[in-house]
Amino acid sequence: MTGDLQATFREYLLIVMGQAFRTAGYELEEQPLKWSGGQFRFTQQREDGLTAHIEFQHLAYQDTQWASGNPSRFRVTLKRSDGVNKDLSELVVTDFGVAILPSPRHWWTYKNLTDLGKMLGEAGSLAIGYGMPWLSGDLTPPEKSTD
Asked: Is the pTM higher than 0.70?
């Protein structure tokens, strides 16, 4: 059953942000085995020879006779082939100082498909507004004051 939950996540991921990511030059890697484990990675080959990745790690939960009420969740990690690696939430909250998320180690949670769409919309907006420009070097966090 977990495979069905991962397939649903992938479908919603592509519906919510697939077109915007493709327009920005990011394509979802064809990795069905990784998809079944909850890893979905968009990749962009940059002109400078580096590769940029936006990874979604999805943990799917469903109610059983032994456990119920656990929300499914996902997080977003930004990576580049030169070793740069950072959680999207850490970039936004800590590096840019935008307290739009509850913590720099944020997992987006949801219990139904409506909430999944909303959470993917939020994460996608942050990935497009902060993550992609940061990965490309077009956006850098402000200098921290030492006052």
From this structure: yes
